[in-house]
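Renewal narrative, Specific Aim 1. Our central claim is that a sequence can be written position by position from structural information alone. The example that follows is taken directly from our test logs and has not been curated for this report. It begins with the structure tokens describing the chain, in the order in which they were read.
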């Protein structure tokens, strides 16, 4: 019996004591913070995000205590959470979770961090809040049969963001369920076509979670009311084609979906990573001359097959193109973010090779997802030889974790150019020991 599942989810965030959260969950939360903050900072330096931050903060009534990460300044919690959410989604380099059908971290971290900094709360309080609110976002995502057209940013995250802020601001327990229901009624009608069209409005969706979660809390504090069950209505009828209350609360507090998420080593949609792994598997068997490639066929589960566009229009479109990802990595003339840049899009060699990559859905693979993320790749050379590779568990999943050195390299590649080696290391150490910090508005001695 699930009873009032929404009451259970809401009170899980609002009322679970810090000491009830297992240490492995807290450790993983620290790792997610270490991974997320430099991703936000790097995204904040992109021209469009920087311009928006300047316009938004020019209207702010005061400087505030909340970091606008990467901008070198602070702002009010409402603005900082919105801008950090947008920046964190901008490069598509942030943490995510297959089971949750999305990116719970970037939905809740910006609002939780901004609120904790505004209130000058401790790192221990912040860490616990992120862990608990992540879990609710992930569970609502797992319980929803999300429509294929829907982009998950700005949907489940509004509920988690609202509950995170409610915990930090001490909303009385009797109002938590009302808040969850109202917050679920404030989700966006997002769409995946923004990805395929290279429309960067998609990155606003994550900012919406941090912004609207705080607004939902303000509304409840002001006496606004929500529907009887906004979560079920929104996610079973509007954004999804079904919602399972049993799945949302099954083993709540015992099974932690946060431990079952992934971190990225490439700035692309997660589903492209499965194809990249299949490519690496093929190349590990035999070296080839890239110029001799005649055709590459990729069979994939549905969400990966959705990323079949061969000719993305710009850097943002490259995040959602398996043909481009394979082509730019095969040529290897660029690495890191540069491999998925406008310069790479303008490279005739990359685009010519991408045109040779053909991605199709295999319904058997779709049926096995998300337990397996199966992709099979066949690379054909002009002399008739073929090279095959496959992926069943995408690298970065709990059953196939990234090497610590690879994750550290990602952190340094993003953080050191922004903050310098010494300050980047200071930030990393502070995040890995955040529970020792008495005031997260002064987590480090420099403005990030």
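The sequence written for that structure reads:
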């Amino acid at each position: 019996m699930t009873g009032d599942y929404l009451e259970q989810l809401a009170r899980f965030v609002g009322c679970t004591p810090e000491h009830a959260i297992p240490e492995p969950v807290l450790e993983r939360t620290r790792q997610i913070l270490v991974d997320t903050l430099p991703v936000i900072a790097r995204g904040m330096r992109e021209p469009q995000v920087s311009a928006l931050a300047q316009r938004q903060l020019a209207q702010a009534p005061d400087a505030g205590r909340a970091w606008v990460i990467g901008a070198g300044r602070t702002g009010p919690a409402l603005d900082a959470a919105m801008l950090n959410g947008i920046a964190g989604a901008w490069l598509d380099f942030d943490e995510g979770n297959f089971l949750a059908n999305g990116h719970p971290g970037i939905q809740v971290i910006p609002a939780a961090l901004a609120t904790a900094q505004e209130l000058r709360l401790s790192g221990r309080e912040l860490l616990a809040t992120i862990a608990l609110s992540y879990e609710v976002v992930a569970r609502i995502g797992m319980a929803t049969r999300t429509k294929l057209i829907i982009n998950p940013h700005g949907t489940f995250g509004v509920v988690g963001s609202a509950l995170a802020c409610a915990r930090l601001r001490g909303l009385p327990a009797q109002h938590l369920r009302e808040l969850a229901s109202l917050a679920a009624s404030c989700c966006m009608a997002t769409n995946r076509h923004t990805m395929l069209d290279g429309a960067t409005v998609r990155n606003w969706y994550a900012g919406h979670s941090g912004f609207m979660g705080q607004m939902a809390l303000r509304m409840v504090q002001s006496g606004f009311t929500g529907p009887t069950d906004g979560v079920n209505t929104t996610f079973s009828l509007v954004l999804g084609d079904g919602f399972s209350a049993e799945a949302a609360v099954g083993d709540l507090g015992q099974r932690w979906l946060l431990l079952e998420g992934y971190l990225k080593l490439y700035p692309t949609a997660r589903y492209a990573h499965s194809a990249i792994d299949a490519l690496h598997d093929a190349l590990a068997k035999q070296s080839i001359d890239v110029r001799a490639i005649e055709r590459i066929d990729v069979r994939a589960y549905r969400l990966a097959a959705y990323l079949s566009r061969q000719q993305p229009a710009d850097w943002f479109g490259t995040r959602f193109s398996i043909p481009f990802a394979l082509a730019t990595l095969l040529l290897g003339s660029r690495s890191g973010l540069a491999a998925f840049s406008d310069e790479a899009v303008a490279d005739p060699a990359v685009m010519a090779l991408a045109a040779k990559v053909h991605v199709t859905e295999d319904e058997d693979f779709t049926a096995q997802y998300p337990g397996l993320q199966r992709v099979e790749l066949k690379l054909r050379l002009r002399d008739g030889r073929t090279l095959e590779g496959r992926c069943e568990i995408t690298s970065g999943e709990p059953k196939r974790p990234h090497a610590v050195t690879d994750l550290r390299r990602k952190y340094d590649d993003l953080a050191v150019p922004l903050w310098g080696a010494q300050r980047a290391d200071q930030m990393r150490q502070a995040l890995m020991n955040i529970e020792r910090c008495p005031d997260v508005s002064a987590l480090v001695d420099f403005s990030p």
